[in-house]
Design goal:
mainly alpha
Length: about 50
């Protein structure tokens, strides 16, 4: 990471930005995990139907 600015207000702004990015990525991760589970379940159902 690049050197942080010396002043407290800008460090607080950077901290808030990083915290927002983490929160947004957690939301995306949760959504993608749910989508992944749905696709796996659909695939499993399709594979069971296709078995002789």
């Amino acid at each position: 990471m690049a050197e942080l600015p010396e002043d407290v207000p800008r460090r607080r702004m950077i901290l808030a930005h990083v915290e927002r990015q983490i929160a947004e990525n957690e939301t995306i991760n949760t959504y993608l995990s749910l989508q992944l589970a749905e696709v796996r379940q659909a695939l499993a159902r399709a594979e069971q139907r296709d078995r002789p």
